[in-house]
Specification:
By secondary structure, the protein is of the alpha+beta class. The protein has 2 domains: 142 residues, Nuclear Transport Factor 2, Chain: A, CATH 3.10.450; 155 residues, Nuclear Transport Factor 2, Chain: A (Roll). Helices cover 31% and strands 30% of the residues. It has 10 helices and 14 strands. A 6-stranded mixed β-sheet has the order 2-1-6-5-4-3. α1 packs antiparallel against α2 and α6 packs across α7. The N and C termini lie far apart (58 Å). It comes from Salinarimonas soli.
Length: 344
């Protein structure tokens, strides 16, 4: 287990280094990556970026295109926490990269206006260097901000994610180990209540509202979902606008494969690559009819524990990757819109 002082030192070193990468130029970003990354580091992220290895690949495939498209990019963290899982030191973050969209990115047409690129990140650190990064950028939300909407209307509210109500999400001081342990324990207890519930019991909406998950959620809970799902408030909003449609679509899903289970004071976080294994057996979710296909989900969860309960939950999820497995290629679907009728 990493000691508290060492964890704080790791976070204090990593935060400015990550901000420096975001504000590099395309021709200097490899140097800034090399200052904090292991040369053979693994990088995995949202579709269509997916997986790669090595500092030069990360620079060439992720950062140079991003910095070319958003030349005034900056990083704004609202959560920055850490911990260890199975002996690995991990740092997690939620926030937005902000920049003016000057050149097309991932075929999405530039708008010339500010864009917020919502992210969730986990970085595994060994001897002061990042050896693995998992980065979920909400690409569908960038498409939304660019003025296109290629999927069914969201049931939740589409908006920029706010920071924690307690305004203390960037945790750069030593935390009480007992509080940290209690935070992740509460999260895992809530997860167990979700896993134990039988989606085929026929209890529908009322069953989800009354099942044991309700003892863990704050009455004013906020659930911040990815673009395509949106934000919900209260247990009723969570059930109606996300949980019930999701569980109808994927009634036999399995969780697990978590490489991150950390608590850091009043915050906790989990994540897997993938986090969820399921079959797409029901209709309605994201407007897609059931395909019967096996799917996996790249998901992260960040939690604020407040007044003894889970008050807020930020959920980066790679929607484009999930839809691709459901036979919906969002980027391909959008090409006729992206071109705006231009001739070949």
């Amino acid at each position: 287990m990493v000691d508290a002082a060492s964890l704080v030192g790791t976070k204090k070193a990593l935060l400015p280094a990550l901000r420096a990468i975001a504000e590099a130029r395309p021709d200097t970003v490899a140097e800034r990556l090399a200052a904090i990354y292991h040369p053979d580091a693994e990088w995995r992220g949202s579709h269509p970026l997916n997986e790669m290895r090595g500092v030069e690949a990360i620079a060439e495939r992720v950062w140079r295109p991003l910095l070319t498209s958003f030349p005034d990019l900056e990083r704004r963290d609202v959560i920055f926490i850490g911990g260890d899982t199975n002996g690995a030191t991990l740092v997690g973050a939620v926030g937005h990269y902000c920049g003016t969209f000057r050149r097309d990115w991932l075929t999405i047409p530039a708008t010339g206006r500010p864009i917020y690129l919502r992210y969730g990140e986990f970085h595994r650190v060994d001897e002061g260097r990042i050896v693995q990064s998992t980065v979920l950028i909400d690409v569908l939300d960038v498409i939304r901000q660019a003025g296109f909407w290629p999927v069914a209307p969201s049931l939740g509210t589409e908006e920029q994610w706010p920071g924690p109500i307690t305004a203390d999400g960037v945790v750069l001081t030593e935390q009480d180990p007992a509080v940290s342990a209690a935070s992740i324990a509460q999260t895992l207890a809530m997860h167990r209540s979700l896993g134990d519930y039988d989606d085929r019991s026929g209890r529908g909406r009322d069953g989800l509202l009354e099942m044991p998950q309700k003892i863990h959620w704050h009455p004013k809970m906020m659930w911040y979902g990815p673009a395509g799902i949106g934000t919900t408030r209260g247990l009723q909003g969570f059930v109606d606008y996300h949980q019930l449609p999701f569980r109808i679509a994927f009634p036999n899903r399995r969780g697990g494969n978590h490489y991150v289970r950390i608590g850091d004071g009043a915050y906790s976080a989990t994540g897997g690559w993938p986090s969820v294994f399921a079959q797409h057996l029901g209709g309605g979710f994201l407007g897609v009819a059931p395909t019967g296909r096996d799917v996996t989900m790249r998901v992260m969860d960040f939690y604020l524990h407040h007044e003894g309960l889970i008050r807020e939950n930020w959920v980066p999820l790679d929607i484009l990757n999930l839809l691709l497995q459901m036979d919906v290629d969002v980027l391909a679907r959008m090409q006729t819109f992206f071109r705006r009728g231009a001739l070949p």
